[in-house]
């Protein structure tokens, strides 16, 4: 059932992407700017049906809020059996809004052992950002040491407004003024160790778009659909005998669509 649903999602996305209007009227832009595309209130929740190698049901909710530098930040929590990309990205992170932008602070984990990729002040959504324009780009490095091997990963994270969709259908539900966003995480990695007294650095991952994720935001709800492709293969691992605790190759597509959400009060 879930696998068939995934195929339907891809077909609907192809149809919608082809039929979306490139010209956006001033009235539609004004309407979009007045919408709340990710309601943040304590106890708000979202339930998603997830289709991947480990399919299931994910639940996300606003746990609490805290004041940081004069702005309210919201802590996001999830059920322990989370499988969707968005669920994992938002869990234990902080979300806040600044000038109508939805901004995320958190980490991306579980891609390479011991490596946490920081997500700092990432603009996850900006309703005023023109279609085709980049919303946010951040670069940085993360490292970990494991039994004499230093693993260093460089990252570039980019978010972009892909489309404004006036009419969007998903599993029998109709939505209006949906904003389509892309998030791309490009990674490269090296390992440094000492061989016969000499420091040696070896590439284990050439620069690659490891995560390509697309989110669909609906007014008054938040993310209603997400398609994420994670794909990479580490090299030179066996030659270096690096004691990694996970497969060195990942290639999977995860579909995550809204099943239920709390009633939002404005």
Q: How many whole angstroms does the radius of gyration measure?
A: 20 Å
User: How much strand?
Assistant: over 45%
Q: How many domains?
A: 1
What is the N-to-C succession of helices and strands? HHEEEHEEEEEEEEHE
- Compute the number of helices: 4
Helix content: 10-25%
Just give the CATH class.
Mainly Beta
Strand order of the largest sheet: 6-5-4-3-2-1-12-11-10-9-8-7
CATH architecture title? Beta Barrel
Q: In angstroms, what separates the terminal alpha carbons?
A: 36 Å
Structural class: mainly beta
On the 0 to 100 scale, the average pLDDT is 85
As residue ranges, the low-confidence spans are 1-23
CATH fold naming: YmcC-like fold
Total beta strand runs: 12
Written account of the structure:
With 266 residues, this protein is mainly beta. It has one domain: YmcC-like fold. 14% of the residues lie in helices and 58% in strands. Strands 6-5-4-3-2-1-12-11-10-9-8-7 form a twelve-stranded antiparallel beta sheet. Strand 1 (45-51) and strand 2 form a beta hairpin. The longest helix has 18 residues, at 2-19. The chain is elongated, with a radius of gyration of 20 Å. It starts with a helix and ends in a 5-residue tail after the last strand. The model is unreliable at 1-23 (pLDDT under 50).
Secondary structure elements and pairings:
Elements: H1 2-19, H2 26-33, E1 45-51, E2 56-68, E3 71-78, H3 85-90, E4 94-98, E5 101-108, E6 117-125, E7 134-146, E8 149-170, E9 173-195, E10 198-218, E11 222-233, H4 237-240, E12 249-261
Antiparallel strand pairs: 1-2, 1-12, 2-3, 3-4, 4-5, 5-6, 7-8, 8-9, 9-10, 10-11, 11-12
